[in-house]
Design brief:
With 278 residues, the protein is of the alpha+beta class. The chain folds into 2 domains: 73 residues, no CATH class; 168 residues, Vaccinia Virus protein VP39 (Rossmann fold, 3-Layer(aba) Sandwich). The chain is built from 9 helices and 18 strands. Helix 1 packs across helix 2 and helix 8 packs across helix 9. Bound molecules: S-adenosylmethionine (SAM). S-adenosylmethionine binds next to helix 4, strand 13 and helix 7.
Length: 278
């Protein structure tokens, strides 16, 4: 059972209004549960109970999601010695995102991570056939692509991210949807095992350049071209071309290298670059 500041606010409002129960979500908006309120305490469906003090602490932290465990709350955040980075599930009004050492995986300003993902996929619509999603993250690109595609192959290198996928209710389909083939590994290496001329669509949504240089390399782009089918389309996230001079150069450099790999029709689009294998 998870809570964010959104549910904490609803719980406190219900208590202050003198209600004896309230319906809120305990899975970040996927479903609704009934919480009983008695003697300034909140009683959850699995018999756990939290105090008003607990709930006020959740409300104070609008940059964290919390797990309800042993009648207490725990922030969903941790440090990985393997990567030397901090990870946390970051709440929004819709699907949460991940923050890795202060860098968020999705756009959360003026839009939700879900809308951000839909916009990326729209750029290679119709998203049909076999889809390669190079970097799983929370799985949103894979999950939304699977609504229209036949099959989605997706790769995630980081065990800490995989742990958050397992906690996040909105990543559930990654583990349950038969159309999604989820692999734990380095996409830079794994792509070499994939068949040539196989994918109708490629979504390349890597971390920023400084964190994953190989995923922006000519060698990797040549592989992306090799595995793409004729008429196959690619969307490559680069950050916001136009927002900062550095990003303009990045998008242009990406276009140059994708073109050397063989892609054509390359253009700067929403937060990235699209192209085609003609
Ligand atoms: C921007 S996020 C992807 C977000 C994802 N598209 C989603 O919808 O949630 C980038 C992800 O790529 C992962 N990653 C970084 N290097 C990788 C590699 N070499 N192979 C596979 N995954 C990698 C990171 O751990 C991170 O989870």
């Amino acid at each position: 059972m998870l809570l964010s500041y959104i549910q904490a606010k609803q719980l406190l409002q219900a208590k202050n209004a003198g209600l004896s129960s309230v319906e809120i979500s305990l899975d970040l908006g996927r479903s609704i549960s009934k919480i009983e309120i008695r003697y300034n305490k909140f009683f959850f469906p699995d018999k756990q109970e939290l105090t008003e003090y607990n709930i006020k602490n959740v409300l104070k932290k609008d940059t964290n999601c919390f797990l309800i465990r042993n009648n207490d709350i725990e922030k969903i955040q941790f440090f990985s010695e393997k990567t030397n980075r901090y990870y946390k599930l970051f709440p929004t009004k819709s699907w949460p995102t991940i923050e890795i050492s202060g860098i968020r995986m999705h756009v959360v300003k003026d839009m939700t991570p879900k809308q951000d993902t839909e916009k990326k996929i729209e750029l290679i619509s119709p998203c049909i056939g076999y889809v390669l999603d190079t970097c799983t993250g929370l799985g949103y690109t894979a999950i939304i692509a699977s609504e229209t595609a036949d099959s989605v192959f997706t790769f995630e290198i980081d065990e800490a991210v995989i742990e958050l996928q397992k906690i996040n209710p909105w990543s559930k389909e990654l583990f349950e949807n038969e159309k999604i083939h989820r692999y734990e590994g380095d996409t830079f290496k794994e792509i070499k095992m994939l068949k040539s001329d196989f994918f109708d669509r490629i979504i390349h949504d890597p971390p920023r350049l400084s964190l994953a240089t190989l995923l922006y390399s000519q060698e990797f782009y040549n592989e992306l071209f090799r595995v793409a089918k004729q008429q196959g389309k690619i969307y490559h996230y680069t950050g916001r071309p136009g927002a900062k001079n550095r990003n303009i150069n990045l998008a242009k450099n990406v276009i140059k290298r994708l073109s050397i790999a063989g892609f054509s029709g390359l253009e700067e689009v929403y937060n990235g670059v699209t192209g085609e294998k003609k």
